[in-house]
Design brief:
486 residues, seven-stranded mixed sheet, alpha/beta, 2 domains, Aldehyde Dehydrogenase, Chain A, domain 2, globular, Aldehyde Dehydrogenase, Chain A, domain 1, binds adenosine-5'-diphosphate
Length: 486
C-alpha cells in the first residue's frame, strides 16, 4: 500500500463549478477490497444535492449547447491530455478503491482518455441531412440537437472508463451532465472531476453528486429538467430506471448484465482459445458484464483444453491489485464474494467437479480481503445456478457439446444478449456464428473485443442503446425535421 493511495481529507462533490459538501452533512467511507482498510472518505449527498446539480446543468446547457462543436472539442482534447498525464495517479486510486491489478487500472485510464479524444473529434461530425420533397414548393431539412441535461449513473467495475464513455459523447453532442458514480468507488471519479475542473469546462457543464443511490436516482427520474438517463449496472436497477423514466418519457440508454457463452470448437487453436478465455474471464477478477459465464467445449477437445487451462491458472498470482506482480485481484465486497462461492457450492452439490480452485482465499496476505481462487468447474448442467445467473467472479463453468446447431441454441437460450465468443479456424463457421448468435458483441477468435470506436451494448435484457464510436453520439441527440414552404 502506498501512502499516495490513502486519501485522508473529506472529498466533496462538484456542483456548478464548486467543490461542495452535501446538504445533509453525511459522509461515506471508501474501503480497499484487498485489505478492508479505509482508503478515503467523501461527502454523501441526497436528492437536494442532485436537484442543485440538475439546476446548474440546465442553466449551463443554454450556453454549452450553443458553442460551436470545435469549441466544445477543445475542452475534450484538454481533458484527454490531462487524463493521460495523470494516468499513474488515477490508476493507483482505482486499484486502491476497487482492487483491480494496477496494470489493468492503467489500461482502463488510457481507455478513458481515448474516449475523450475520440469524442473531441466526433463532436465535429454531427451532420444533418436534406431530404428530397414529394411536393415542389417544400424543402425538407433534418438537423441534430443535444437532448439536454443527462443524468449518468455508473458502476464500480470500471470506475473511470464508465464515466468517460458517458460524459465524453454527451459533452461532445452539446449536453450537460450530472454524474452519480457507484458509492464504493467515488474517489477515482473525484480525481477525474479535478481534471475536468483543470480543463476549464464552464461551470455547471459537468457535475458530480455522490451518495445513496435511491434518493439521487429518484430525483434524476422525477426532475423534468433531466432529459436522458445513461446507466451502466445491473439488469435489476436498469429495469427500475426504465420504468421510472417512462413517467416523463426520458431517453434511456442502459448497459446491463450479461451471461456470455464462449464456444470452443474442435477445430480451434486451443492455445489461442485459452488466452482468449483468460482475457474474457479473469480480467477484473471476472467482474465485467462481458465476462464469459458459460464455456462450451467440443467433446473431442474438452480434456486437452481443460488441462491447458488448469495448468495456466496454477501459475497465476492472486493478490492486492496494488502489488505490481498481481494478475487477479480481490472481489469488490463480501456480498460479491459470497455470490461467487454460492454458485460454486450449488454446482458442486448438483454433481459438477471442481477441477481447480473452488474456495475463498483466507490465509496470510488474503486474510482481510475478498479473494476467491480462480476456479474451473467441469460437468456443468442447465439446472445449476451458474448456468443461468451472472456470477461476476473468477469461475469457469465447462459444458461439453457435440453438435454445432445445438450449441448455438444453448448459447442463445438466455435472457441476456451482451457478448459471445467463438473459437474456430473454419471460415464458414465463423460467419455462421457471427450471424446466428443473438448478442450485441461477438468475439470471433477474440476474447477482448472492446474498442472505443466500436458499438458496445446488448440485445434482450442486456440493455438498450449503444456506447462507443459514432453510435454513442446518437444516444445524446434529438432529430429535428424543418419543413420550408417556398
Ligand atoms: P452492482 O450490482 O454492480 O453494484 P447496481 O446496478 O446496483 O450494480 O449499481 C450500479 C449503479 O447504479 C451504482 O452507481 C449504484 O449506486 C446505482 N444504483 C443502484 N440502485 C439505484 C437506484 N435505485 N436508483 C439509481 N441508481 C441506483
Amino acid at each position: 500500500m502506498t501512502e499516495a493511495n490513502v486519501i485522508t481529507e473529506t472529498k466533496r462533490m462538484f456542483i456548478n463549478g464548486e467543490w461542495v459538501e452535501s446538504e445533509s452533512g453525511k459522509t461515506l467511507k471508501v474501503v480497499s477490497p484487498a485489505t478492508g482498510e479505509q482508503v478515503g472518505i467523501v461527502s454523501a449527498g441526497d436528492e437536494r444535492d442532485a436537484r442543485k446539480a440538475i439546476d446548474a446543468a440546465a442553466e449551463a446547457f443554454k450556453a454549452w449547447s450553443q458553442l460551436t462543436a470545435r469549441e466544445r472539442s477543445k475542452y475534450l482534447y484538454k481533458l484527454y491530455d490531462l487524463v493521460r498525464e495523470n494516468r499513474d495517479e488515477l490508476a493507483g486510486i482505482i486499484s486502491a478503491e476497487m482492487g483491480k491489478p494496477i496494470r489493468e487500472a492503467k489500461g482502463e485510464v488510457l481507455g478513458a482518455a481515448d474516449n475523450f479524444m475520440w469524442y473531441a473529434e466526433e463532436a465535429k461530425r454531427v451532420y444533418g441531412e436534406t431530404v428530397p420533397s414529394s411536393v415542389p414548393n417544400k424543402r425538407i431539412m433534418v438537423t441534430k440537437h443535444p437532448v439536454g441535461v443527462v443524468a449518468a449513473i455508473t458502476p464500480w467495475n470500471f470506475p473511470v472508463n464508465m464515466v468517460a464513455r458517458k460524459i465524453a459523447p454527451a459533452l461532445a453532442a452539446g449536453c450537460t451532465v450530472v454524474l452519480k458514480p457507484a458509492e464504493s468507488t467515488p474517489l477515482s471519479a473525484i480525481r477525474l472531476f479535478e481534471l475536468i475542473e483543470q480543463a476549464g469546462f464552464p461551470k455547471g457543464v459537468v457535475n458530480l453528486v455522490i451518495g445513496e443511490p435511491e434518493p439521487i436516482g429518484k430525483e434524476f427520474l422525477e426532475n423534468k429538467k433531466v432529459r436522458k438517463i445513461a446507466f451502466t449496472g445491473s439488469t435489476r436497477v436498469g429495469k427500475l430506471l426504465m420504468e421510472g423514466a417512462a413517467k416523463t418519457v426520458k431517453r434511456v440508454s442502459l448497459e446491463l448484465g450479461g451471461h456470455a457463452p464462449f464456444i470452443v470448437f474442435e477445430d480451434a487453436d486451443l492455445d489461442a482459445a485459452v488466452n482468449g478465455l483468460f482475457e474474457s474471464k479473469f480480467r477484473n477478477s471476472g467482474q465485467m458484464c462481458i465476462c464469459t459465464n458459460r464455456l462450451y467445449v467440443h467433446e473431442s477437445v474438452v480434456e486437452a483444453f481443460t488441462n491447458k487451462l488448469v495448468a495456466r491458472i496454477k501459475q497465476v498470482k492472486v493478490g492486492d491489485g496494488r502489488n505490481k506482480d498481481t494478475e487477479i485481484g480481490p472481489l469488490i465486497n463480501e456480498q460479491g464474494l459470497n455470490k461467487v462461492l454460492e454458485h460454486i457450492e450449488d454446482a458442486r452439490a448438483k454433481g459438477a467437479i471442481v477441477a481447480c480452485g473452488g474456495n475463498r482465499l483466507m490465509d496470510g496476505e488474503y486474510a482481510k480481503g475478498f479473494y476467491c481462487e480462480p476456479t474451473v468447474i467441469t460437468g456443468v448442467t442447465q439446472d445449476m445456478r451458474i448456468y443461468r445467473e451472472e456470477t461476476f467472479g473468477p469461475v469457469v463453468p465447462i459444458i461439453t457439446f457435440t453438435d454445432e446447431a445445438a450449441v448455438v441454441e444453448a448459447a442463445n437460450d438466455t435472457d441476456y444478449g451482451l457478448a459471445a465468443y467463438v473459437y474456430t479456424q473454419n471460415n464458414a463457421r465463423c460467419f455462421r456464428m457471427a450471424e446466428m448468435l443473438e448478442y450485441g458483441i461477438v468475439g470471433i477468435n477474440d476474447g477482448a473485443p472492446t474498442q472505443t470506436q466500436a458499438p458496445f451494448g446488448g440485445f434482450k435484457e442486456s440493455g438498450i442503446g449503444r456506447e462507443g464510436g459514432h453510435y454513442a453520439m446518437d444516444e445524446f441527440l434529438e432529430t429535428k425535421f424543418v419543413s420550408f414552404g417556398l
